[in-house]
Specification:
- The complex is a heterodimer of chains A (about 120) and B (about 110).
- With about 120 residues, chain A is an all-beta fold.
- Chain A is built from no helices and 11 strands.
- In chain A, the strands form 2 sheets. In chain A, strands 2, 4, 5, 6, 9, 10 and 11 form a 7-stranded mixed beta sheet that branches. In chain A, strands 1-3-8-7 form a 4-stranded antiparallel beta sheet, with no helix packed on it.
- Chain B is globular, with a radius of gyration of 14 Å.
- Classes of the chains: A mainly beta (about 120), B mainly beta (about 110).
């Protein structure tokens, strides 16, 4: 069974730039969620994708957007980067509609630094 | 957004001691999950709880889903140095419906003195 993978592991950008983060879900999982985790904080829910559509969104502005592909992999795009966007971005997958559907499995994260 | 009340915020214990941490909510939850996160890594699922009163073990870890469905605790017995990390509770509130968004605690930071 292949776990959740994310790329890149680290990224440095400057204010105003755009960034795309990628996630491959665990095999057999059809739902992907993205989280932002600031240093010393718990993960904050950004949004969730199921069947290539956004299916739930947290309190994040529209410059945070995403995609899910037919193979259930996903992208997180952030436009007009701000300093406060510096964080660990986590992707989590789960298998909606099956037993244990709430159990989310996380990737190692992408550390984004905005200068 | 909503967060769970997780306590204690941090713990510093001696190797071999038992540890207990808990999470509470003002809302009823359908699911409680406990995760451990090491620095720079993603959270790793330790235990998942689905029924009120459920008591589940995973090695030296034991977690329970509170009877009121508004709380959960995690116990670690006979702690060892590799237990060091941040432990998060997360829950699926009953009001979330198909959204199934997890609500997270702020974490309990555990340090173990060998």
């Amino acid at each position: 069974e292949t776990g959740v993978t994310q790329s890149p592991t680290h990224l440095i950008k400057t204010r105003g730039q755009q960034v795309t983060l990628r996630c491959s879900s665990q095999s057999g999982h059809n739902t992907v969620s993205w989280y932002q985790q600031a240093l010393g904080q718990g993960p904050q829910f950004i949004f969730q994708y199921y069947r290539e559509e956004e299916n739930g969104r947290g309190n994040f502005p529209p410059r945070f957007s995403g995609l899910q592909f037919p193979n259930y992999s996903s992208e997180l795009n952030v436009n007009a980067l701000e300093l406060d966007d510096s964080a660990l971005y986590l992707c989590a997958s789960r298998s909606r509609g099956r037993a244990g559907a709430d159990e989310q499995f996380f990737g190692p994260g992408t550390r984004l630094t905005v200068l | 957004g909503q967060q769970l009340n997780q306590s204690p915020q941090s713990m510093f214990i001696q190797e071999g001691e038992d540890v207990s941490m808990n999470c509470t909510s003002s809302s009823i939850f359908n699911t409680w999950l406990w995760y451990k996160q090491d620095p720079g890594e993603g959270p790793v699922l330790l235990i998942a709880l689905y029924k009120a009163g459920e008591l589940t073990s995973n090695g030296r870890l034991t977690a329970q889903f509170g009877i009121t469905r508004k709380d959960s605790f995690l116990n670690i017995s006979a702690s060892i140095p590799s237990d060091v990390g941040i432990y998060f509770c997360a829950g699926q509130p009953s009001y979330a419906g198909n959204n199934r968004k997890l609500i997270w605690g702020l974490g309990t930071s555990l340090a173990v003195n060998p």
